[in-house]
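User: Second chain of the day. Same drill as before.
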Amino acid sequence: EQLAARSWDARAQAAIALGRMGATEQLERLRGALAGVAETDRGYQYALAFAVEKLGGIGGKEILVAALDRERVAGTNWGYTMVAAAAVGELGVAEACPLLVHSLHHRDIFLIKAALASAASLGCRDLAPEIRPLLDSPVPSVRREAERALAAIGVK
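Assistant: Same format as last time:
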């Protein structure tokens, strides 16, 4: 059972998969896991929050939005934050738009790309001034994702 794996990433991927598969029969189990997860196990916590919301539960969005605040982004492993940044886009959490700026300014390219993809799917037009400089990134995949994000939000 992957939800009990030692690796946070394996547990997180299992929770995300259950949410995406629509495994509503697992909702109570996931809620229980979310209620009991240690605050320090943030990657798994964010994945559980995603799965609970995806399956129609409540309480996960608040956890995901809080994960994107400036202090959390600066003080948390980028891999954990990437789970939250991607989750808000997939869940359509528009109130996360202004907070994605902190992930856009992070040094990790994978977190930046997750934030760009969510900004695109959420239509975060106010982030255009923060996205434009990424068109000059030395990393081609960041430049491409920035182009996609600007096109998706209707800004050239």
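The mean pLDDT is 95.

User: Great, on to the next one.
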